[in-house]
Amino acid sequence: MKILLFILLRLLFEPSPKISISDEEKALFEKIYIKTCNQENKLVQYNLFIPKYKFMQYLAETKDIIFHGSNNSGIAVFEPRKQTLYNGKLTNAVFGSKDPIWPIFYAVFNRALLTGNFRNGCVTADGKQYFHFYSIDSETMDKKPWMSGMVYGIPADSFIHVSKERVQFAEWISLKKVRPTIKLKVDPSDFYYLKNVGKHNSVESHLKTLFFYKVRKIMKRNSKGN
Predict the structure, then answer these.
(1) Which domain holds residue 59?
(2) This prediction's pTM
(3) What is the arithmetic mean of pLDDT over 43-51?
């Protein structure tokens, strides 16, 4: 079953990039992390040419940090609030993810320009290989809804992984208020899948958006080639 689900996810969505971190990069990341922890504002001074998602992956692996992306760059404390889980159920929680790419979307997607809806996710069938999908309604996409934002690193000790199905979302929640220990400014260019964000009609079903996500990208590429 896992093999079939893996094949289906690969057909429908975009696979996560393989992230390999060298010993030299680890040393640089650790130096940045220590320096940031000693700063009062906890804002990372990132001046490396290494993609920021690699730095985030290092933090997730070595510091047990959960990430939360936001347009708001001035959050000092995250309070639980009413939100919808991946399965549509309501909860009162703080959301986050250990995936180093998905939170960047929430940081750089300018929600103030949203006129319809957006669909997105980071999913896995085996807990190892993850797949991403991002689609925004056409009217919003025409506004070029991108901005600089902030990814917050939060200690993972109060977070639980809520997705238990065969296909699991990389979604974690905390029922307590939490304080970020590190902040990383990100730009649209830092979002790995920026060129793979799809467009959909805001009134179409969620299922249709998912099934046609990759097909529409291929059709768009072919139309440009002609």
Answers:
(1) 2-225
(2) 0.94
(3) 97
